[in-house]
């Protein structure tokens, strides 16, 4: 049995080797995205796994091409599968699978880390230290146990973040369109987004991106926040109206922000633009602000998450090849 994995990074190789040995399956890799031009590489394989930023496209012939090679599935080792035309793949007889949750802790820990950095004013101290200014005046920190963390979207990641914040002693409140009774030992639900925004010292976003969550944090929402409150976004960029965030930060309506994801990130994130003058985008403006921290969508990027993405995706391929069913099929 042979499986081909597309778009493989060096940091995935150890997990792939371990899985291949444990299952006695040959797993070959390349560093190419899956497109009509690279589809022929899958010839002779029993299964394939992809992971990519750009869309495969909606040309049904590429999916039929895979089926004609004898493949039964198309597995993405990501949660999002917006790169795949699922109806076209299904029409060709392929089972499409994803990895919906590889490690909620990976992103939740990122949100906790960024929150701690914000409340300790570490970004502002870094700025002073870069100027050889070792003073601490004006930058007294607040302890997390004295604060209310408001989580919008207490699902897999938000629920995990709630447990971590609760463990650190914070008061945790949450707003979600669905309530999870198993979380009520660590958080208190509020009825409206507005109520949460007014009460929280840190607003932590973990909604999935959907028509109700796009633009959830707009100018009116930011105005409801306390002037000394912070916002942390490790969900999806378009959940915040970035123009409104930039304006609110400039006007001092909120104290700062940590963004692992931001509208327009695809033009910059996971690329090296050293030495270039960045176009005057919102991202560039936010990067200039001393009270804003940007990380390039790396919440997911941990040892355990990468291993789980590899293991869960390959397990599903094997199951399907052997005629079984997986709960991750669309
Ligand atoms: N930064 C990263 O590297 C990274 C990695 C993985 C996932 N993510 C993002 O994290 C987010 C959460 O992922 P998850 O697996 O926890 O998702 P999930 O589906 O388990 O949880 C999302 C929660 O948001 C709630 N929600 C949706 N729309 C809402 C709205 N308008 N108002 C209030 N609540 C709403 C849902 O009811 C659900 O409980 C997603 O946006 C995902 O894309 C980021």
From TrEMBL:
Keywords: NAD, Oxidoreductase. It comes from the Bacteria. InterPro entries: D-isomer_2_OHA_DH_cat_dom, D-isomer_DH_CS, D-isomer_DH_CS1, D-isomer_DH_NAD-bd, D-LDH-like, NAD(P)-bd_dom_sf. The lineage of its organism: Bacteria, Bacillati, Bacillota, Bacilli, Lactobacillales. The keyword NAD applies. Residues 4-328 form the D-isomer specific 2-hydroxyacid dehydrogenase catalytic domain. Belongs to the D-isomer specific 2-hydroxyacid dehydrogenase family. The keyword Heme does not apply. CDD domains: LDH. Residues 114-299 form the D-isomer specific 2-hydroxyacid dehydrogenase NAD-binding domain. Transmembrane segments: none annotated. This is D-2-hydroxyacid dehydrogenase.
